[in-house]
Amino acid sequence: ADAGPAALPPGQRAAGMQYLPLDGSRRGLLLITHAAGGDAPAGSPAQVLQAQAAQGLTVLEIAHQGEGWRLQPGSPRARRIDALTAIDVAGPAAGHALLKTAADPAGRSVRGLLAPGPLLLTPWGSCLAGEADFAPCFASADQPTRDERRWGLGARAPAGWPDFDPRFDTVRHANEPHRHGWIVEFDPRDAATVPVQRTALGRAAHAGLALALTRAGRIVVLRSDGGRGGSFYKFISRDALAPRRRGAAPSVGSGRLLDDGELFVARFDADGSGRWLPLTGPGADAAAACIRTRQAGDAAGGTRWARPGGLAIAPGGRWVQASVEPTDAADGPERLLRWRDEGDHDGLRFEWQATGAETTLPPAPQGPDDTAAVAATFAFDARGGLWRSRGGELLFTPAAGGAAQTVLAAPRGSRVGGTAWTPDGRSLFVNVGVDLRPKVRRDARIEGPTPRPAAAGGPVSATLSIHRANGGSIAA
Predict the structure, then answer these.
(1) Nearest to 83 by CA among 47, 48, 112, 51
(2) Are 176 and 148 in contact (CB under 8 A)?
């Protein structure tokens, strides 16, 4: 573990999840983010430390043994990255005045990964974790500044941390919020490495992440900002990723390519066309635009949605699928849309469209904080089927289209979190925050512990593995 109370269980609201193969579909690493340390506000210094140690992400090694998956105790790759972990800062915002604090006068070392949501595996072997709804960790003055209001901060901190940890009180530490809301890169195979904030990608309350390589090898990172009035963003690397030699291991150091490039915000026009508007580049203050990405996007004319959700790139093409709530109906149904860039993924013009019947879904659950309960799962499988979670359901839409099918339904009041697949498509891992065993399709078999009340009396998240009784692909 990277910090203090290592024996504590991971936090609640398990969000993003990825399976990283070590030996194909027989052995691998399971990466899981935990968006909150608990559901109740902390009421003492000890509870704050517990919540900070439980929030973050977990790396576990698992292996398929006999008929099921088993945790591999003592794995040297196992680790926790939490709200107390030291994280380096790289890119244009490193050392900027808005990132400097009394504890870090250089502005180059941040303490903690706050409220992480989506996870993304890169072609060079690392993993990107997007900090999501970090605002509830902070409390401002009775009258928040304009910057704090745009980022969802208020005089009350739902997490209860500022009463016992002064760095989350913006009256005393005004720059601390600027140090969160970033994409953090880490090496999941090496627990000794220090995670790195890639500030050139910009800040957000991340709801979705996707990555593509252009034909020329440039890296394109797509992000959705799930905060109220959020937008979609794109980063294009300046340099290309070098082709990997046959049989060579991935070079995690290639992540440095994410420190130089240009950042854009999407503008969706009513005629079905769109443009990527530059936030950085010649004549722009790149560091300021990356730190105050929302304000830069607003000034550039980016489209602000009530709350953007997940996004994913369809296999075998350039279509990007995303979920949103429309700006004219903040309490209305989730919508699905897709877009395709002109030429390649680094194109600056695109066409977009709503995707027919899939625009009508149940109303999105609302909460008291700045970020809605967006889909923790939003991804395509290898066959082109779209998987997404919505509240207590895991939905699947076949590649051929048609109505979404419910694959897993959790009991009322619980939530389906992130999902991940093995490369052969035969094992599906699902996070469920619930105190009863969920229902699954009759031809599937479920493994893993039934979620049970924690010692303090509340429910805990559990990770389940699901496979067909006949051993076939889950998506078949």
Answers:
(1) 112
(2) no
Let me know: does 233 contact 202? Beta carbons within 8 Å. yes
Q: Where are the beta strands (DSSP E) in 366-427?
A: 378-380, 386-390, 393-397, 405-409, 415-421
Copy the structure tokens of residue 336: 């699905």
Q: Specify the DSSP class assigned to residue 288.
A: H
The two tokens of residue 261 are 């490039």
Provide the Cα torsion 199, 204, 209, 211; round to 10°.
Answer: -30
Contact 222, 240 (CB under 8 A): no
Residues lower than pLDDT 70 in the chain: 1-13, 37-40, 245-250, 326-334, 356-375, 413, 433-461, 476
Backbone angles phi, psi at 47, to 5 degrees: -70, -35
294 close to 226: Cβ distance less than 8 angstroms: no
pLDDT of residue 258: 97
Q: How many CA atoms lie within 13 A of 475 on its CB side?
A: 20
Please count the other Cβ atoms lying within 10 Å of the Cβ belonging to residue 360: 10
- Give the C-alpha separation, 143 to 357, whole Å: 43
Residues 6+ positions from 89 with CB-CB distance below 8 Å: 95, 99, 107, 108, 109, 110, 179, 196, 197, 199
pLDDT at 254: 87
What DSSP character marks residue 139?
Answer: B
Per-residue H/E/C for 292-335? CHHHHHHHHCCCCECEEEEEEECCCCCEEEEEEECCCCCCCECE
**Residue 101: burial class (beta carbons within 10 Å; 0-12, 13-18, 19+):** middle
CA distance 204 to 24: 33
Contact 293, 302 (CB under 8 A): no
**pLDDT of the residue at 11:** 58
Q: Rounded to an integer, what distance in angstroms lies between the CA atom of residue 162 and that of residue 153? A: 12
- The angle at the Cα of 361, spanning 352 to 275, to the nearest 5 degrees, equals 15
Q: For the chain, what is the largest distance between any 2 Cα atoms, rounded to a whole number of angstroms?
A: 61
**Could you identify the residue written with the tokens 């517990």?**
50
Paired residues of 187 in beta bridges: none
**Amino acid making up residue 292:** R
**Looking at the DSSP assignment, which residues form a beta bridge with residue 80?**
58
Give the list of residues 6+ apart from residue 444 with CB closer than 8 angstroms, or none. Answer: 466, 467, 468, 469, 474
Neighbouring residues of 456: CB distance < 8 A, sequence distance ≥ 6: none
Q: Kindly state the helix (H) or strand (E) to which residue 62 belongs, with its residue range.
A: strand 56-65
Torsion angle, CA of 8/9/13/14, rounded to 10 degrees?
Answer: 130
pLDDT at site 336: 87
Four-point Cα dihedral 81, 86, 89, 95, nearest 10:
150
3-state helix, strand, coil in the chain (%, to 5): 10, 40, 50
